Amino acid sequence: MAHDGQTLLLYMSPEEGSALNDLFVCFLKPDGTWTEPKNLGKKINAPETDEMTPYLAADGVTLYFSSNRIGGLGDNDIWKTKRLDDSWTKWSEPENLGAPINSANWDAFFTMDAGGEFAYLTTSEEGYGASDIVRVRLLEEKKPDPVVMVTGNVYNKKTGEPVTASLLYETLPDGVQVGNALSSPFDGAFKIVLPFNRNYSIRATANHFFSMSENLNLDSMVQAGYTEIHKDLYLVPIEIGQTVRLNNVFFDFDKWELRKESFVELDRVVKLLAENPSIEIELSAHTDSKGSDDYNYKLSDNRARSVMEYLISKGIAASRLRSQGYGETKPLASNDTDEGRQLNRRVEFTILKN
After folding, report:
1. Residues 72 and 87 grouped into a single domain
2. Quick one: 190 and 245 in the same domain?
3. Which helix (H) or strand (E) is 296 found in, with range?
4. In terms of C-beta density within 10 A (0-12 exposed, 13-18 middle, 19 or more buried), how is residue 318 classed?
5. Are 85 and 71 contacting, i.e. CB atoms less than 8 angstroms apart?
6. Do 251 and 258 contact (CB within 8 A), yes or no?
7. Packed helices 293-313 and 263-275: angle between N→C axes, nearest 10 degrees
8. Are 284 and 305 part of one and the same domain?
9. Predicted pLDDT of residue 307
10. Is residue 312 part of a domain?
């Protein structure tokens, strides 16, 4: 299973009774079943050779596998290749990882930590039995592309208690789901791994809650190697008086036209209202303290109205919605710091009737 929880790599013999294996990939479908195995192509599955024990690195493109193909050090060796597109049949020329990872004997079942620092594999070279598990520090050229490890906990926003939930992460602005995970049933803890060069919306889901998504724009981060980020996620009960911050609604500076990255977030609100026709909400927008009171009020009021107009355009009755700009009058934090001002600039909705 790949880190995204949606991609399954496996090996099996394409011909009944054959001792030679090929590598295949399956994808998780929306109904929870898997697609038919797809052959990874001739670049990976060489004729008359045995390809087995695939491992897809956390970057989602670097594949390590065991093979007895020509060019190895002896029996099965570990090879590395990179996926070149989304067809899963086009790969870079496989590269033998060489010694000390490979030996003259049988080497397979390669895996590694999320940071790509250490590899773990089984080898029959000078062990205590038929084969042993060993750890090897990887050289830079043998590592996959760096990734970001996101850790956190899922909490009930109202009570502060941990929640067991499913996690989804999507790319923006297209809204494509690129991974899923589960939080711990004990403390709501989770870990997910994200490749760089993408803008992500991350959220938890559970029955009777609306999720407060978080934005992680890794497209704008400098790739300084493996990085860890702590980000807690919150679920808001669908109850009168509850307020939900919409963290993935975006505007350009000094503007109130919605950016296209906002549509994925707002479509979730549309879905909530469509599935719960008795709910009425207030949409509110807030600013920090920079600028005059009149300017901040006008900007926030226009932004709240833009959100309301989007929901109406998607079929939600105007009678179920109201919009209000509050300017800088309802800060969540001090406006003396950049972090505080960022918290204060927000769009929210509050459930008025259910």
Report:
1. yes
2. no
3. helix 293-313
4. exposed
5. no
6. yes
7. 60
8. yes
9. 97
10. yes
Residue in this structure with the two tokens 């996926």, named with its chain if needed: 83
Question: What is the count of structural domains for the chain?
Answer: 3
What is the pLDDT at residue 221? 67
Q: Same domain for 67 and 153?
A: no
In a domain, 248, yes or no: yes
End-to-end C-alpha distance for the chain, whole angstroms: 41
Residues 36 and 49 in one domain: yes
Tokens of 91: 């790969």
Closest alpha carbon to 171 in 210, 212, 218: 218
Residue listed under structure tokens 């939080």: 183
Residue 91: what residue type? Answer: W
User: pLDDT digits over 96-147, tens only?
Assistant: 999 989 999 999 999 999 888 899 999 988 778 788 999 999 988 899 988 9
What's the burial of 332, exposed, middle or buried (CB within 10 Å: 0-12/13-18/19+)?
exposed
Q: Give the CATH number for residue 320.
A: 3.30.1330.60
CB 235 within 8 A of CB 188: no
Contact criterion met (CB below 8 Å) for 146 and 196 = yes
Q: Which residue positions in the chain have pLDDT lower than 50?
A: none
Last-in-domain residue among 96, 127, 142: 142
- At residue 171, the pLDDT reads 94
* Per-residue pLDDT tens digits for 261-276: 999 999 999 999 999 9
C-alpha separations of 226 from 59, 64, 195 in Å: 11, 19, 10
Among residues 116, 142, 168, the one where a domain terminates is 142
Q: What is the pLDDT of residues 28-48, one digit of tens each?
A: 998 999 999 999 999 999 888
CA–CA distances in Å: residue 196 to residues 3, 189, 231? 14, 22, 16
Is residue 244 included in any domain, yes or no? Answer: yes
Has this prediction a pTM greater than 0.85? no
- Give the chain's radius of gyration (CA, Å): 25
Strand partners, 208: none
Residue 302: give the domain boundaries.
Answer: 239-354
Question: Can you give the CATH number for the domain in which 208 is found?
Answer: 2.60.40.2190
Q: Residue 168 has which token pair? A: 């989804």
